[in-house]
């Protein structure tokens, strides 16, 4: 088996551990996710144990392409150190700098991706907000006309 082939199977196996074929929609995945402080798949993306397409990285923030893109451009921006930020609802004053940095970085990445006509920023929180991964992340979606209100 080639190295790439091996990687492919590795990724599928890990993905199916949180989004199974019978639970294919993002909403179902979100409703099945239990809000918790446990490590998430994003730790393995940060450590590069799971491959992802990184579009921006510095000492505090990692930005990579979403595996299930909801538009021509769909990027996730995450703090490299979660520090209790499982979701925005858990934010404390000590997180103000990193929260600002995530949004500022989203603007830089939007520019880098050529989203000059606009884009959408989304932060899902908790079961009703359809959050499925409990490591705070900012969705940057663009490259098509968005609709309002969101679903
Ligand atoms: P949430 O639903 O929690 O707001 O967003 C989680 C996002 O993470 C989803 O859009 C989902 O497609 C993405 N995602 C989940 N697992 C992986 C993965 O292994 N790799 C990448 N690149 N994205 C993932």
Task: Report what the structure shows.
A motif (Histidine triad motif) lies at residues 135-139. The chain is an alpha+beta fold and 151 residues long. 29% of the residues lie in helices and 16% in strands. The chain contains four helices and five strands; from the N terminus they run αααβββαββ. The chain has helices at 3-16, 26-32, 41-46, 96-112; strands at 54-57, 61-65, 73-79, 120-122, 138-142. Strands 1-2-3-5-4 form a five-stranded antiparallel beta sheet, with helices on one face. The protein is globular and about 35 Å long. The model is unreliable at 1-20 (pLDDT under 50). Guanosine-5'-monophosphate binds at residues 15, 26, 30, 41, 50, 52, 64-68, 76, 124, 130-133, 137.
Average pLDDT level = 88
Low-confidence stretches: 1-20
- Structural class label: alpha+beta
Number of DSSP-assigned strands: 5
Rg over C-alpha atoms, rounded to the nearest angstrom: 15 Å
CA-CA gap between termini: 43 Å
Query: What hetero molecules are bound to the protein chains?
Result: guanosine-5'-monophosphate
Query: Any idea what the shape is?
Result: globular
Main sheet record? 5 strands, antiparallel
Helix percent reads 25-40%
Give me the side-by-side strand order of the main sheet. Answer: 1-2-3-5-4
